[in-house]
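Protein data sheet
==================
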Amino acid sequence: MIGYYTDNNISHSVMKAVGRSGIKVRHIKNFDKDQPAVFYGILRGCGAGMLHHKIQGIPFFYIDNGYFDAMYMDLTKHKEMSGKYRVVKNGMIEPFMGAPRKEPIRKCKVLVMPPSPYTAFMYDTSPEDWNLQARERLIRLGHEPMLRDKTDQQPLLKCLKHVDAVYAFNSMGAVAAIDAGKAVYTTQGVVQNDHLLEECLPYYDIAEIRKFYEPKQFTLGEISEGKACLS
């Protein structure tokens, strides 16, 4: 197993923790296409490395912001490193498999959350294509779509107050929407249930979501201690 850092301060910090756990780390420019790997994020070559390993069937671990209690970059691009980080084997998000409470479908205002260009690339799509398909589908079903893209500076919780449901690609904002009591659909995210869009309004129990995901996320200190089991 080899952990890869890039020319990015956050990547360096995360991979220092990985290295302290006993795993060899190196720069992504020295990528070994035949060895199992640990990546942080998808930029600067990590996404290409993950795609290679996925196609070739080589195991890898992906580290990124946690499902809960994560710290994000502020407007000055500063990130506190004390938050939680999700650790996923052979993917970017481990989907929650629990069943939702279902309510009869009705016309809704739906917040649409497309992927970033980098995440879309990992799934052979684009933000524009995914958003177009999502909007057309929602409108066909009689819903009113409201777009929120990655450049929107309005707080998510404020946006959620004006909608009945969320339709997302894989945004961690889906967890916040569940916590806010909204019906949630995602295509590649925490619930991966967009097949329910024409059947019902799905509501998930945030306590069940938290119970499922908390054991799958760690602080950098816990990663250093080997608690993330990167093997």
The mean pLDDT is 91. Residues 50 and 60 are 7 Å apart (CA to CA). Residues 2-94+214-224 form one domain.
